[in-house]
Design brief:
The longest helix is centred in the first third of the chain and has 22 residues, at 58-79. It is built from 14 helices and 14 strands. The protein folds into 3 domains: 6-54 and 118-151 and 341-386 and 413-441 and 448-480, no CATH class; 58-110 and 161-191 and 252-332, no CATH class; 196-248, no CATH class. Helices cover 36% and strands 11% of the residues. The chain starts with 5 loop residues before the first helix and ends in a 14-residue tail after the last helix. It has 494 residues and is of the alpha/beta class. The chain has a 4-stranded mixed β-sheet. It has a two-stranded antiparallel sheet with strand order 1-4.
């Protein structure tokens, strides 16, 4: 298990402490101090092997402030309104703001994960062992071989869009729970997203290409199967068009497909709730989605009235480019997603990659980041269990206070709120002042517990937590009590 990283080790250790000894969790800093001082653990930068060769724009800040103020005004209106009275939500014009309720929002954002040819993490931790027992090298312990990671100049990416939302146990109860796993991701791995015009050009190019190929006879003098292009090979025009789109769709995706997916899944997750007719969809300013054809399509399918956007009463506060849309580069608004949700998902799939590292490459239960498709599969699997409903709810509860922070900051970037649950600063536990650097989720002991293990990795997890492994964890837990210091080491991002 030398490929597992300290964050995941801390989570496993805390799981054992809680379930076996009913003891409180320890911090990652304590584990790092144990690793740094242990004579049997070798820590080194992971070897790499080559495969071959703020200054904010003032207009942007003003638009951010206007959007945040509008969002707060919408929440205030929602505080006095009953969602059941807003069946006409979709018919309200753009001259007025609409009420907004936290459980009536569905947020969407894209997540890209680079492939990685080898173990995760920038640091490598090897345990010196003698006869199966951790032993110092001075006493005959032997370190296992080092594991390298292969770097590539242009790594492929797993690509998918994810949605997030919360619900209340009772109306206005304030008791929220996340339902992000109910929103199916949109997978566009290995595909280039295009505007409708660009996609039509790709279709036309493919048709012309096959028509040209069909004009060339085979080496034996026979007619090509592509004689006459798609129309020649598939006499039924419906079938011909279907085959054409399937071929182009292998490498290209029409942004209409993303829009349709967001609309379909958002309606489905809100169906049967009191927000069924008055829910709001938030998506960061994805330029290709807010293009003229995209807007026309959203209006055509009925999605437009449900989009969070800067409406006419606030147009005089923003540049024309942001009127009737939203401001980009605002990850703190993507609650349950780019704010902290994707971090939880990433930590989850990295843990599972390490957990299943010994499985054969062709085992369907193996998690790996070796190809774009495999990276996307890891993200989608992890999204089923991470972030947890409680984590998602906590992230969403911070959404409204964050809008106030943005207004107070005049629309400029508010330091650290993206990864700090909505707090400007966090005091040290001992009362000695504020933290010197950005506060991270993994610095909170209560978050350093094992995520729900995915069914595909359950057998590997059970094997890891056998009695013999538990003994090692118990010893590490006892030793870790003797250490508690600042964490100066970071796990590597994907």
């Amino acid at each position: 298990m030398q490929d597992i990283q300290p964050t995941q080790v801390t989570a496993l250790l805390n799981e054992y402490r809680l379930n076996v000894h009913n003891e409180p969790p320890v911090s990652r800093a304590a584990v790092m101090n144990f690793i740094n001082k242990s004579p049997i653990i070798d820590k080194s930068v992971r070897q790499k092997r080559k495969s071959g060769s703020k200054d904010e724009d003032s207009k942007w800040a003003k638009a951010r402030k206007a959007q945040a103020q509008m969002t707060l005004d919408m929440f205030e209106l929602g505080d006095t309104e009953d969602p059941a009275d807003w069946d006409n939500f979709a018919t309200i014009g753009e001259d007025h703001i609409k009420p907004l309720w936290l459980p009536g929002i569905v947020a969407w954002d894209e997540k890209h994960t680079n492939i990685r040819l080898g173990p995760g993490g920038n640091m490598e931790y090897r345990i010196s062992v003698k006869d199966g027992v951790p032993t110092s090298p001075a006493n005959g312990g032997v370190l296992p071989p080092r594991h390298s990671v292969t770097t590539v100049k242009q790594p492929g990416q797993g690509r998918a869009a994810f949605g997030s939302s919360v619900r209340e146990t009772d109306f206005r109860s304030g008791d929220y729970y996340g339902v992000s796993s109910l929103l199916a991701p949109f997978d566009y791995t290995d595909k280039w997203m295009e505007t409708p015009k660009e996609f039509q050009k790709s279709l036309d190019h493919e048709k012309a290409d096959k028509l040209a190929v069909g004009a060339i006879k085979t080496p034996t003098g026979r007619d090509s199967v592509w004689k006459g292009g798609y129309a020649g090979r598939y006499p039924d025009p419906v079938v011909a068009d279907q085959k054409l789109r399937e071929e182009v769709g292998k490498k290209k995706v029409n942004v209409f497909d993303l829009i349709d997916h967001i609309w379909r899944e958002s309606k489905a997750v809100m169906a049967g709730t009191i927000y069924e007719n008055c829910f709001t969809i938030y998506h960061d300013h994805l330029k290709i989605m807010w293009c003229k054809e995209g807007v026309e399509h959203m209006k055509r399918i009925g999605m437009w009235p449900h989009l969070l956007k800067i409406v006419k009463p606030y147009h005089n506060l923003v540049n024309k480019v942001w009127q009737d849309c939203v401001v980009g580069d605002s990850p703190e608004n993507a609650s349950g997603l780019d704010r902290t949700g994707f971090q939880a998902m990433q930590q989850c799939f990295l843990f599972h990659v390490a957990l299943t590292a010994k499985l054969p490459l062709d085992d369907p239960n193996k998690w790996n980041l070796g190809t774009p498709a495999a990276a996307t599969r890891c993200m989608i699997r992890a999204w089923e269990i991470a972030p947890t409903p409680e984590h998602t709810a906590k992230d969403w509860i911070a959404f409204r206070p964050i809008q106030q922070m943005i207004v107070e900051a005049e629309g400029r970037v508010v330091p650290d709120i993206v990864m700090r649950g909505g707090h400007r600063a966090v005091a040290r536990a001992d009362g000695s002042g504020n933290l010197d650097s950005r506060y991270r989720n993994r610095q909170r002991k209560e978050t350093l517990t094992v995520w729900k293990v995915h069914p595909t990795a359950q057998a590997c997890y059970d094997a890891l937590t056998t009695a013999s492994q538990a003994d090692l964890l118990e010893k590490a837990a006892i030793d870790a009590k003797n250490y508690d210091g600042d964490d100066e080491n970071e796990d590597d991002d994907v």
